C-alpha cells in the first residue's frame, strides 16, 4: 500500500504553528544546564582523586566548595525543569492548572 492509496485526510500534515515543542525551550535550557553541571562535577571528582599531597589540601577545599555550589545549582535547575515540564503538560491538556 503506497501513500497514494491513503485518502488525503489520513496523510500526516505539517505541524501547526502553535504546536507545543517537546521538550519546550525552557525544558531544553534546564536540561542543558544540568548536563553542564554534571560534566563539571565529573571533572572535579577526577581532579579530587588525582590530588594527594599537602599542597593539594587547599585545592581539595576549593573543589569541595565548588561541588557544594554545583549541588545548589543542580537543585535550582532541577526545580526549573520540573516546573517547565508541568507547564508543558498543562499546555497539552494533560494536567489542570
Q: What is the H/E order?
A: HH
How much helical structure, as a percent, in the residues?
A: 55-70%
Tell me the number of structural domains: 1
Please identify the structural class as seen in this structure. mainly alpha
| Binned strand content | under 5%
Q: Characterize the overall form.
A: elongated
Largest sheet: none
* CA radius of gyration: 23 Å
Parts with pLDDT < 50 across at least 5 consecutive residues: none
> Mean of residue pLDDT?
83
The number of distinct β-strands equals 0
First-last Cα distance: 44 Å
- The tally of helices reads 2
Detailed description of the structure:
The protein is mainly α and 97 residues long. The protein has one domain (23-92). It contains 2 helices and no strands. Helix 1 (25-50) runs antiparallel to helix 2 (56-92). The longest helix is centred in the C-terminal third of the chain and has 37 residues, at 56-92. It is elongated.
